[in-house]
Amino acid sequence: MFIDIAKIFVKSGDGGDGAVSFRREKYVPLGGPDGGDGGKGGSVILVSDPSMTTLLDFTYKRKYKAEKGQNGSGSRSYGKDGESLYIKVPMGTVVREAETNKIIADLSHEGEQCIIARGGKGGKGNAKFTTPTRQAPNFAQPGMPGEEMWIKLELKLLADVGLIGFPNVGKSTILSKVTKAKPKIANYHFTTLKPNLGVVSVPNIKNFVIADIPGIIEGAAEGVGLGIDFLRHIERTRVLIHVVDISGIEGRDPYEDFLKINDELKKYSVKLWDRPQIIAANKSDMLYDDNVFKEFEEKLKKLGYDKIFKISAATGKGIDDLMKETARVLNTIPITDLEIDDKERYIPQEKKFTYTIKVEKGEESNIYVVEGSFVDRLLASVNVNDPDELRYFHKVLRNKGVLNELMEMGIKDGDYVRLNDFEFEFVL
């Protein structure tokens, strides 16, 4: 089964907590603090793997979590870092942040890696909080939480050349003739339900990869048929071979078909529409009037297309010349990575612990409620019932600017400050 889109949840490991510990040594207050730091949490890393050809694995498992860092311990022993989680994805996978749909990474080279979620830092042990006036701190820092997000994986095939055209014009037959690929071939529309790739070997010319892209019909860019699902797979191609049925045995006009397909390319992406095209007028062995091809050729030349080949995939006529010209054009076009516009690129926000302050009015005194991730982290790291730790608590509030902000908001002596379940009376 060919799966080219998947949505998964990733979470990096939380950092380990710092330790509160005291060594037993004579003449050292409380034995002396020796709590070690917590270990760093593992990161979630995507790795491109050329042996993978589909995102099928991600339909069965959708949540991925890296290992947590271990907590610190006594004797200044640091906790072990959590193991990073490496997730293999096919080459050509574009990674998007699910909520904004912005691009995080384009993994188009073998072994290329991208850190999607970084592990949380380990918390500091109490040995790191000693000062000349605080020689026996009885508190430590909790580990930083890991990052988490939903991401979308979008596979865009790494093909040099894309075969495009209406269904049943012979794209799969051409692919089977020029490569060792064995696509399903039958005389009905949408025989091909997934992109097929093959390698073309032309004597004295570097090999190239060609893909048969199914389902592009009128309205494909708006989701009609299968086209919208597969148009992404020709975004990386450097050359397009536009296949038309010149025989007209199905009552279709090859010129009109050519215009309609190009209109769909333009609607989907102007860059795609502007890509070099080589036209392959297929099924020429079934053409009864050669003037049909001549008229078709003249119309296209007026539009600026000069690479038009009269071929028959069934008999092999003209196929060699078509591939040689394709290889020649490829050699004139440099290989470039997928272009990512600055507006499309995802820029991770720096993790900050924030807070908000709101006022609950009272008859005699007001209550200033401080909430947010900053409050949660601060209260997790100190015991407010311990005098030394309470002094550290107030020092952090002052350094963070919380006390100044409270005064700017008009707090007075006798008002109260509430942080989660802890409440104290404000005194200047």
TrEMBL record:
<feature type="binding site">
    <location>
        <begin position="282"/>
        <end position="285"/>
    </location>
    <ligand>
        <name>GTP</name>
    </ligand>
</feature>
<keyword id="KW-0378">Hydrolase</keyword>
<feature type="binding site">
    <location>
        <begin position="212"/>
        <end position="215"/>
    </location>
    <ligand>
        <name>GTP</name>
    </ligand>
</feature>
<dbReference type="GO" id="GO:0042254">
    <property type="term" value="P:ribosome biogenesis"/>
</dbReference>
<dbReference type="Pfam" id="PF01018">
    <property type="entry name" value="GTP1_OBG"/>
</dbReference>
<keyword id="KW-0460">Magnesium</keyword>
<keyword id="KW-0963">Cytoplasm</keyword>
<dbReference type="InterPro" id="IPR014100">
    <property type="entry name" value="GTP-bd_Obg/CgtA"/>
</dbReference>
<feature type="binding site">
    <location>
        <position position="192"/>
    </location>
    <ligand>
        <name>Mg(2+)</name>
    </ligand>
</feature>
<dbReference type="GO" id="GO:0000287">
    <property type="term" value="F:magnesium ion binding"/>
</dbReference>
<dbReference type="InterPro" id="IPR036726">
    <property type="entry name" value="GTP1_OBG_dom_sf"/>
</dbReference>
<dbReference type="GO" id="GO:0005737">
    <property type="term" value="C:cytoplasm"/>
</dbReference>
<comment type="similarity">
    <text>Belongs to the TRAFAC class OBG-HflX-like GTPase superfamily. OBG GTPase family.</text>
</comment>
<dbReference type="GO" id="GO:0003924">
    <property type="term" value="F:GTPase activity"/>
</dbReference>
<dbReference type="InterPro" id="IPR045086">
    <property type="entry name" value="OBG_GTPase"/>
</dbReference>
<feature type="domain" description="Obg">
    <location>
        <begin position="1"/>
        <end position="158"/>
    </location>
</feature>
<dbReference type="InterPro" id="IPR005225">
    <property type="entry name" value="Small_GTP-bd"/>
</dbReference>
<feature type="domain" description="OCT">
    <location>
        <begin position="345"/>
        <end position="428"/>
    </location>
</feature>
<feature type="domain" description="OBG-type G">
    <location>
        <begin position="159"/>
        <end position="331"/>
    </location>
</feature>
<dbReference type="InterPro" id="IPR027417">
    <property type="entry name" value="P-loop_NTPase"/>
</dbReference>
<dbReference type="InterPro" id="IPR006169">
    <property type="entry name" value="GTP1_OBG_dom"/>
</dbReference>
<dbReference type="InterPro" id="IPR006074">
    <property type="entry name" value="GTP1-OBG_CS"/>
</dbReference>
<dbReference type="InterPro" id="IPR006073">
    <property type="entry name" value="GTP-bd"/>
</dbReference>
<dbReference type="Pfam" id="PF09269">
    <property type="entry name" value="DUF1967"/>
</dbReference>
<comment type="function">
    <text>An essential GTPase which binds GTP, GDP and possibly (p)ppGpp with moderate affinity, with high nucleotide exchange rates and a fairly low GTP hydrolysis rate. Plays a role in control of the cell cycle, stress response, ribosome biogenesis and in those bacteria that undergo differentiation, in morphogenesis control.</text>
</comment>
<feature type="binding site">
    <location>
        <begin position="190"/>
        <end position="194"/>
    </location>
    <ligand>
        <name>GTP</name>
    </ligand>
</feature>
<keyword id="KW-0342">GTP-binding</keyword>
<keyword id="KW-0479">Metal-binding</keyword>
<feature type="binding site">
    <location>
        <begin position="165"/>
        <end position="172"/>
    </location>
    <ligand>
        <name>GTP</name>
    </ligand>
</feature>
<dbReference type="Pfam" id="PF01926">
    <property type="entry name" value="MMR_HSR1"/>
</dbReference>
<dbReference type="InterPro" id="IPR036346">
    <property type="entry name" value="GTP-bd_prot_GTP1/OBG_C_sf"/>
</dbReference>
<feature type="binding site">
    <location>
        <begin position="312"/>
        <end position="314"/>
    </location>
    <ligand>
        <name>GTP</name>
    </ligand>
</feature>
<protein>
    <recommendedName>
        <fullName>GTPase Obg</fullName>
        <ecNumber>3.6.5.-</ecNumber>
    </recommendedName>
</protein>
<comment type="subunit">
    <text>Monomer.</text>
</comment>
<dbReference type="InterPro" id="IPR015349">
    <property type="entry name" value="OCT_dom"/>
</dbReference>
<keyword id="KW-0547">Nucleotide-binding</keyword>
<dbReference type="GO" id="GO:0005525">
    <property type="term" value="F:GTP binding"/>
</dbReference>
<feature type="binding site">
    <location>
        <position position="172"/>
    </location>
    <ligand>
        <name>Mg(2+)</name>
    </ligand>
</feature>
<dbReference type="InterPro" id="IPR031167">
    <property type="entry name" value="G_OBG"/>
</dbReference>
